[in-house]
Amino acid sequence: MKLIIAYIKPERLNAVKQELYSREVYKMSVAPALGCGQQKGYVETYRGVIHEVNLLKKMRLAIAVNDDFVEKTIEGICAGARTGAIGDGKIFVVPLEDCIRIRTGERGPAAIG
Amino acid sequence: MDLRKYMMAAGLLAGVALCADGGEVASPATLKDVEALQLNLNIVWTLLAGVLVFFMQAGFAMVETGFTRAKNAANIMMKNIMDFAVGTVSYFLIGSALMFGTSAAGFIGTDGFLMRVFGDPADWNWTFMFFQTMFCATAATIVSGAVAERTQFRAYLVYSMLVSVLIYPISGKWAWGSLFAETSAGWLESLPTGAFCDFAGSSVVHSVGGWIALAGALVLGPRIGKYKPDGKPRAILGHNLVIATLGVLILWVGWFGFNPGSTTSGIGDIGRIAMTTNLAAAAGTIAALATAWLLLGKPDLSMTLNGSLAGLVAVTAGCNSVTPIGALIIGAIGGVLVVLSVLAFDRLHVDDPVGAVSVHAVNGLWGTLACGLFNAEAVLKMGDASTGLFYGGGFGQLMSQGIGALSYFVWAFGLGILMFTVIKKTIGLRVSADEELKGLDITEHGNDAYAGFQIFINE
Asked: What is the value of pTM for the model shown?
């Protein structure tokens, strides 16, 4: 079991969801986040003063998957989130020790479903 | 004695001293004095009403942003504030002349550009033109809601100028030209079936704005993600229904200047007109609530808010001529109509984020026609002849209303389609897909309306 954490551009969220759905990955959680990587930030103006934004708005997806779904999920996220421009984001694959479904008490790969 | 008694005594003595000066007695008020007082009363009331109508700009801004997404909030604010600024200047330079200049065939004005028509610095017409400018700006700002979230800002500025320079003033003359002078009368004011009745602008202001809004929504197309691949509509939730409600309440308050102010006189009728306005708004609210509750299962706030506005728009034409019961019925039907219309336009794939077309075009039309049914000037002992079908006036008024409503539709919708299509083919009308997804605030303006907030962009 793995936990896939992805940071993507907010406006790509819908595209990523559609790509995941088409690969039969339906379960996920989404949270807003601020982040930066190599991107130097973009330029905004406020009342005539230019200021650089270094922590940019991103979306953080967390998807728990069984091992056979890992590659599909990564593919789906990349397909939806890739624009070619700097700031597309990153995906982290983290080993998951256990997963419990609260409603039924199931544990392990069966709980991920 | 204490200070108060001392001051009263001093005042009394001063008064006696003044009166005793020369032994003159104040002359009785002459007719001219009374007329001058009435004129000043008219000016005071009309100006105050004009300021209330200006405040409606804030109402429109709040409603439109409340019903749309946070990522486009600054853009909506820009559109609303520029509507007013561009409208004011355009109307001053050109629009007011086309609307109130000497008429050519009752169709268009031919003089008075740059408002060079008044000599006296205290002339009534300064106030009159201020008032009329507010109405022009109201018509212009209706469209920003229907074309929200996907229109290029510069395209919108072009539209805004054209509506205030050309579209609104010319059709405004048709019904309201003679308010300024007999020589500027419009052709709808002298129809053989009876003068067209549009007291405060269901057609002149709201239908014109509404039909242009429909044209804009059609030429633009729906927002990305509004319709699923199978054609079913998706809800794109407004980001702040609290501010939308505030907007509706501000509009409701402003309407107490919009309708009663259209008397442009400080006379007793303003109270009655405020009553009919309020009754229609309340009836529209309740009727929309009931309709939405019935059809959608829950008492929906956004539909209810649209209902209040629908009632207000619907009574705007007849507010001076209908009975209170008539106002209630007109408002109630408006409330039902707006809910059905919103659902219908959604099904027809016309994406109208705030329901502008349903509120202003559909109810502007209904309000205009309603005069033909509900006008009751004879019953209200108003002396004028305008009486609708339901009060024994026959079909004459209804026919005039129909002719007028149709003319406004053809004019506003036709010119709207032409204008937006030309804009689309020249400077471009819609933003790119990427810009639309990122949000117009950051892409069009480089501004962030909600800096410091985390906005959830879901589509």
From this structure: 0.89
